[in-house]
Specification:
With 382 residues, the protein is α/β, with parallel strands linked by helices. Helices cover 45% and strands 18% of the residues. It is built from 15 helices and 16 strands. The protein starts with a strand and ends with a helix.
Length: 382
Amino acid sequence: MNFRLLVPPGTSSARAGLLTTGHGLVRTPAFLPVGTRGTVKGVLPRDLLDLGAEMILCNTYHLLLRPGIQALRDLGGLHRFLGWPGSILTDSGGYQVFSLSSLRHVDDRGVAFRSHLDGSALFLSPELAIELQLVAGSDLVMSLDECPPWPASASVLEQAVRRTVDWAAKGKAAWTRLRESDPALPTPEAGLFGIVQGGADAKLRALCAEELAAIGFDGFAIGGVSVGEPAEEAVRTVADTVVHLDRLRPRYVMGVGEPWQVVEMVNLGVDLFDCVLPTRLARHGVVYTERGRLSLRNASFRLDTAPISPECGCYTCRHFHRAYLRHLLKSEEMLGVMLLSLHNLYFYFSLMKEIRAALEAGRWEAFLAEQRARRREEKEGQ
């Protein structure tokens, strides 16, 4: 993995770069569609490529349960299994495991938990998390971390940081050992990321980032945001964290976020984002537009022959109107969710293109001001 800045920070911390993996180039800032179980819900890989997706996210926890890591090894790795030619980032599975509060037990060795599918007993250690991702053929591998809830006491946050750093060191050792001992790994050019935790405590965030930097990673992720805290607080937490991360390495905010959050976090110097919102909202009939969200299930759209957004150039907006899309949703036809997912992802990818273009043209401050003004208008109209 290689990362280089094409447009270094100017008056703000925003920057544009180029991330190179064994499966191609990723222009940053970049948005990663979420393919938790090996598929971005309701969207063909062909359409993801047409949208401009260069990297997707898959989840280690779900792939561990089904189809299983041995099956992925036997089938030649995750890229071949998915039929996806681009890059893949895998999270460690830590967030999903920690969300199983009634089904898991955490100690310094790792996490013992029960499958949400059949209740079978499983154990995820920091070493195993790295092995699973390497065997799967991930391009960007995440260290196992402990993601504390929100809100959490100081003692809980301190323990999560201590454990996250300890697990990161163990994972890094396993990473080195496995890459030296197994020449047949699907992606020998993969990069390893450490994950910064610490809740909303700026001092703990700084401490975690400093100790992860001492271990040494190819990039850094900011975890523990978008876990229930107010959206504005998530931005503040990222601001408190990113200033402690190596400017020459890629920075990734996990599980974020709304379009306005992406813009604000790019302004802070973040390079990579993933979020389930584009496809999750589509499954509820909600779409993004330049003027805010619309719920196409509303009766007001029953005879509306306008596209979702007249300014949008996506396949959905070029061929279908709101009345038909509402009909599909009310009839529970799968095409409705597919078309809305395509539109929402197009909205995100268009935003990322606009962000990169503004950075490359040296007009970031003007673009940021425009986006903030639009955000204010949306809030006033709610």
